[in-house]
Amino acid sequence: MCLGIPGRIVQVIDAAEQLAMVEVAGIRRPVNISFICDDLRPPEACVGDWVLVHVGFAMSRIDADEAARTLAVLQEMEDMQSELEAMRASAEP
Amino acid sequence: MKYVDEFRDPAKAKALAADITRLVARIPRARRRPLQIMEVCGGHTHAIFRYGIQQMLPEEVEFVHGPGCPVCVLPMGRVDDCVALAERPDVIFTTFGDAMRVPGSRKSLLKAKADGADVRMVYSPLDALALALKNPDREVVFFGLGFETTMPSSAMTLIQARAQGVRNFSLFCNHTTIIPTIKAMLDSPELQLDGFLGPGHVSMVIGTRPYAFIAGHYRRPITIAGFEPLDVLQSTWMVLKQLAEGRCEVENQYGRIVPENGNARALAAIAEVFELREFFEWRGLGSIDHSGVRIRPAYAAYDAEKKFHMPNVRIADPKSCQCGEVLKGVIKPHECKVFGSACTPETPLGSLMVSTEGACAAYYNYGRVEGLARV
Ligand code: SF4
Fold first, then answer.
1. What separation in Å is there between the alpha carbon of B319 and the centre of ligand 1?
2. Which residue has a Cα nearest atom 5 of ligand 1?
3. Global pTM?
4. pLDDT at B7
5. Separation in Å, CA of B40 to nearest CA in chain A
6. Are residues B99 and B49 in the same domain?
7. Are B59 and B85 part of one and the same domain?
8. In 3D, which of B254, B171, B272, B221 has the Cα closest to residue B37?
């Protein structure tokens, strides 16, 4: 819950709602990207970006190396497994 | 995995640990008593145990495991409120999975669910809001907890609920705020902290400036730290270097994630929806002034505390629990009388045993660590 999980924005679902599809460790789910968008970075410009996702919200833009490192740490934590489980459960329609 | 290895390199870790020993020799205070460094965040607590970082350090340096795991500091009375809400037939009670097993005075949410209450684990407050849209004849309550890392998400969810005119959704707000909490630790006569490892992800939202009072008013060093083993080790080294050089500053080891000014949009969402409470009750620590937030009147229609009657009873922790003393670093987890006997991760008595980020659970799980120290 407290640790962000790295994911990659693969597609904008709804630009007005600032909702994007993010792929997190192989799981796709809608994520709110309003906290990392601004006038210089509208939602469309965010596709391909790596972000740190906390409880369904992208909270920070990160680089690919940081994403790999963070994933490696999380992989070793039990919490990550239950987070991913929760994410997977909620990703299903 | 080059970049991962870089943060695990045992040679680097050994070099840092040796450097730490040299630094400590330059700090006169360390000869009288161990230097106490508090890691505020449960993620750091977890890393310290997982990788055996304490064992890599000289005896003169001790980590004190702070109150930064929001699940661990939930008082029993609050859990009882959750259970009471969840047991209402009209309510779908939604929560992060982490909070399910925290013991209340009667039962945990997990037990309430087993007993027939409609408790659902969600990954995001947005999922709870979606559930409300799908179940217009039920009241969906989301149990919001966490520091500034999760606070913006709850705020944005309420902003959306209001914009969409949803009427059957509310937040049971138990969000806590980090700065008054650290201040309470600094003011506590039981604690003699020499420095801090600052929380990484909270700081990504609030930035580094709000910590200035720690260095200024309280004259203690703080380093905002990442979660890799070498991040934690390097941040500890940075704190000790400040102590050795007689400096007190806010330093940022986690600059790759934490900007000086934090996240402006997330802070704006928090300010729009939440205001400080006069005080908030913590498990084991008692009441801490201004350490929690509540929902502003403009969003009262989404405030579960306004919408429903809450028992709101203060329940003392069981006598045998020593969570408060562990939280304040007065005793180590294994020194608690019930550690490993009446209180285990399977049957937690205190909430520090519930979350893997709680000091007791981390101690229990990694008591016999094969960490970085012995690679
Ligand atoms: S062992 Fe259990 S009761 Fe004792 S301090 Fe830890 S969590 Fe609390």
1. 11
2. B323
3. 0.90
4. 63
5. 13
6. no
7. no
8. B221
